[in-house]
Amino acid sequence: MNKKEWNVLGAVIAAGLMSFGGVLIETAMNVTFPHLMQEFNTDASGIQWVTTGYLLAIAIVVPISAYLIRNFSVRNLFLFAEGMFLIGLTMNAFSPDMTVLLTGRMLQGVGTGISIPLMFHIILTKAPLQKRGVMMGIGTMTTSIAPAIGPTYGGILLSTLGWRSIFWFLIIIVMVSLFIGLKSIPAETVKRDEKFNFVAFLTLALGLSMLLLAVEQMSATWLMISLVSLVGFYFANRKRMLLNLAIFKFRQFDMLMYSLLVYQAMFLGLSFILPNYLQMAMNATSTQAGLFMFPAAVIGTILAPVSGRLLDRIGAKGPITVGLTIATIATVLMAVFFQSMNFWVLMFAQMLMMVGIGLSYSNLMTTTLGSLPEELKGDGNSIVNTLLQFVAASATAIVAQILASAVENDAVNGVVVGAQEGVIFLATLIVISWCVFMVARRKIA
Predict the structure, then answer these.
(1) Looking at the structure, do residues 191 and 201 belong to the same domain, yes or no?
(2) Does 46 share its domain with 166?
(3) 50, 103, 160, 394: which has the fewest Cβ within 10 Å?
């Protein structure tokens, strides 16, 4: 590789490491929830805001990433994101109560909300076309594998050094990312001639926030406020475009994106359900609950770049079809036989599901964005990543509510019943996703 290609790779790794840290912390905190519920005197539906609030911050920031990328240099955006993330981590490492903990988590969300679309922007605009599949495999590996590694990372540190060490060790990863980024991302001059549509941004942020509250609390009031806000965003966006909603006119894009969103729901939903189920129903330690996710993470890490190379050589249709089919079968089996599965059988089902996800996720991301015209890919990147984060937050809130409701109705068997109901919910989504993809695959090369 020449110097330019090395710089592109370094930029992808720098943004990818930060994105990895951001996604890692999403699920690393899940194994701490039983401990934090006691320390901060709250229940499952309350403590899940440690993750949900973070994901909501990401979902609010990501929509403006296209505007930010058009009006600020990649280097400046990278440095700002690093700063927000480091401040948030430091606050969390010292947090004395839930308020400080949530504030720090939301600052981390701002940093992650910039770094994830920035990473994909670098890949789509800077990477050579013949190496784009591999680069996308590396990029998506950071965001797809981290949810599986998170519980292992969090569980080991929780049981050895305490939950605050989760943030301290992550600071090291972010500092490595900062060093690589400073070396590989060049300073650029960007002409700022575009006005920011504050009305569209505020109505979108309010709409997404209220919609998440509606999902979390099953509230018709929040739902109505959300719908009014989103209608307001639609009209404000037409006057001065914050996001180009024309991307939804492309049917192929819509169908492929649905499968992407389901995968995201699977990642975060199962990453919440399984560690809590293992600790609360199987009496596993936080370390055991964390290590449970590790073999699947290793499989995903190996397969993500392999799937990118397959895309470069044979196209996306085969790897996505095989991967999605395997993931669907594994999830359905887990849903049907959940209560009869012991620790090891459940781990095998999780590993099998990760084989499917590893084969298909990065190719699905590449193909989804590739189905758009070149001039719409920036907006497509922003909207896809916005919806991915919102779906992650919603999935976490929904399965947390399912689990909390089951425990409230049956204190003895509620955890087992609620966990299985959560998996059934996710299995239903992926079965629908498989059916939708079978229609969409006809037009995939």
Answers:
(1) no
(2) yes
(3) 160
DSSP tag of 27? H
**Span 407-441, pLDDT tens digits:** 777 755 778 888 888 889 999 988 988 888 888 77
The pLDDT of residue 444: 67
Q: How far apart are CA 36 and CA 279, in angstroms?
A: 13
Place of tokens 């037009």: 443
pLDDT score at 363 = 82
For residues 187 and 213, state if they share a domain: no
pLDDT at residue 254, as a whole number = 86
Tokens for 239? 């006057």
Instruction: List strand residue ranges (DSSP E) for 202-347, in order.
Output: none
Low-confidence ranges of the chain (pLDDT < 50): none
Cα–Cα dist 378/254, whole Å: 16
Q: What total of structural domains would you count in the chain?
A: 2
Q: Which CATH number do you get for residue 154?
A: 1.20.1250.20
Residues 168 and 287 in one domain: yes
Domain shared by 186 and 208, yes or no: no
Supply the pLDDT for residue 105.
92
Q: Contact, 88 vs 106, CB < 8 A? A: yes
pLDDT score recorded for residue 45: 66
Q: Are residues 163 and 222 in the same domain?
A: no
Give the type of residue at 42: T
How confident is the model at residue 81, as a pLDDT?
A: 93
Tell me if 269 sits within 8 A of 426, measured CB to CB: yes
Residues 221 and 283 in one domain: no
Longest dimension (CA), the chain: 63
Which residues contact residue 138 at a Cβ distance below 8 angstroms, ignoring those fewer than 6 apart? 12, 13, 16, 304, 305, 308
- In degrees to the nearest 10, what's the CA dihedral of 418, 421, 426, 431? 170
Q: Domain of 203?
A: 197-241
